C-alpha cells in the first residue's frame, strides 16, 4: 500500500463546519470576492497558507508549560540554542519574532542603497526588506524553475550563469550577500539540490561573499535531496542538513514553517562581528538576545518542533500527503504546476479556466469559486497579486502565470479532507464557462490582493444561471 502514513494519532480535535451554499454566496459577495476577508469560522478547509498553521504535538504543548520566562539567559533559550546549533551548526543563534524580522536585521546590518542581493527567487518579505533599503533583489533561478509544465527534480536550483553575470554586471563591491531559498517557495515550493548548493557555495567563497540560506523549509529540502539526488539516498536527514548548512555562512528562518510552531523565527551566523552588529539592532527592535521578541515558552516549543521535523517518518508523511493531493488532481485532470511542491500545489488557472482573459483575474475567479463550491480557501498568486506597470513603457504587465496555491498546513488535515479539496477543484473546473470574470471595485495603493474588493464583471451573479 502506497499511502503517506500518519506517524501520529489525534489527541485533540477542533470542530469545523461547512456553512450552506447560500450562506457562502452571501459571505463571498460581502467579502468582495476576496477570501482574505472571509471569517475563518465560515471556512471548511483552509489552505491559505502553511505558515504558522501547524498542529503542535503533545510534547510541544508540554514544552509550553515548562517555558522559562526569565528575561535573560532563560533555560528555554539554552535548550533552543542547543537544538539549533546541533542541527544547523552555526556559532551564533539569534531568536526573532518571525522570519521577516530575521531578514530585516540581517539586511539592515549588511546591505545599503544601490547594493544588489541575488537569490534563486526572493520570497515577498526578503524582496521587500531588500528593496526597503534601496537595494535591488535579483532573482537568478535556473530557467527550468520558470517552466510550469517541466517535470524536473530540483526546480529550485540557482543558475550559476545568472549569478556570475550579476557579479560581472554590478561588480563584487555592490553584492554584500547572496541568498538561497530552500525550498523555493515563490517558485512552487521546489527544492534545491546539494550539487547546486555546493556550486553556489564554492562560487561565493571564491568571490569572498557570504552565502545565507532562507531556510524556512530546510527539512523538506533535505528530504527531497535524500529521495531524489544521486549519492544521498542512504544518508540521514541530520547528515544532509549538516552538509547543506556547512555550505553557507548562516541562515534566516521562519519557525512558522519547519519548526512546527505558530510564531517564531531566528537568524544563524558564523561571523562574530556581523552577529554582534545584528544583536545590537535586535535589542533595539525585538528584545534581549535570549528571547528576541518571543516568550520563553515559544522558544521551548520551537526547540521541540525542530527535533520533530527531522523525523523521516514525519517528512515522508508530510511531503507524501502533498504529492498524494497532486495524484488526485491528476486523476481528475485538474492542471497544476509540476511537480507537486513540498508544501503546496499550485493550480494553473489559465489552463483550468481558459475562457477568462487575464484582465478578469482567472486565478482569483478559481479561488473565489473554490470557496463558493466547497468552502475551501486557497490563495491567488496571479494578476491580482502581481500586476504592475512597466516603469519604461507605462504598460500594465501580467505575471508569467495565473496560479491558485493550495498550501497544506502541517499535521492538520486528513487525507479524506484533501480528497475533498481535489473534488471541489474538479467541480469548479467542470462548471468551466459558467464562472464569470471579476473586476476590481476598490483597491489600496500597494499589496492590493490582501484587501481589494471585486465583483462579477458588469454586476450580477458570479455563476451564470445561479439564482443566488
Ligand atoms: C514565510 C517565509 C518568510 C517570512 O517569514 P514570516 O515568518 O512570515 O515573517 C521568508 N521566506 C520564505 C521562503 C517564507 O516562506
Please name the defining characteristics of this protein:
alpha/beta; Aspartate Aminotransferase, domain 2
Shape: globular
Rounded to an integer in angstroms, the radius of gyration calculated over CA atoms is 22 Å
Taking pLDDT < 50 over at least 5 consecutive residues as the criterion, the unreliable ranges are none
The CATH fourth-level homologous superfamily of the largest domain: Type I PLP-dependent aspartate aminotransferase-like (Major domain)
Strand proportion, as a percent range, falls in 5-15%
Proper CATH architecture of the largest domain: 3-Layer(aba) Sandwich
- Ligands, ions, cofactors: pyridoxal-5'-phosphate
| Total helical elements | 16
Mean pLDDT: 95
Q: Main sheet?
A: 5 strands, mixed
Number of domains: 2
Number of strands: 16
What features would you describe in this structure?
The model has no long low-confidence stretch (mean pLDDT 95). The strands form six sheets. The protein has a five-stranded mixed sheet with strand order 2-8-7-6-5, with helices on both faces. The protein is globular. It folds into two domains: 21-50 and 311-456, Aspartate Aminotransferase, domain 1 (Alpha-Beta Complex); 58-308, Type I PLP-dependent aspartate aminotransferase-like (Major domain) (Aspartate Aminotransferase, domain 2, 3-Layer(aba) Sandwich). The chain has 468 residues and is an alpha/beta fold. Helix 2 runs antiparallel to helix 11 and helix 4 (99-108) packs parallel to helix 5 (124-132). The chain is built from 16 helices and 16 strands. The longest helix is centred in the C-terminal third of the chain and has 20 residues, at 312-331. The chain starts with 20 loop residues before the first helix and ends in a 12-residue tail after the last strand. Bound molecules: pyridoxal-5'-phosphate. The site of pyridoxal-5'-phosphate (PLP) has 15 residues, from helix 4 and helix 5.
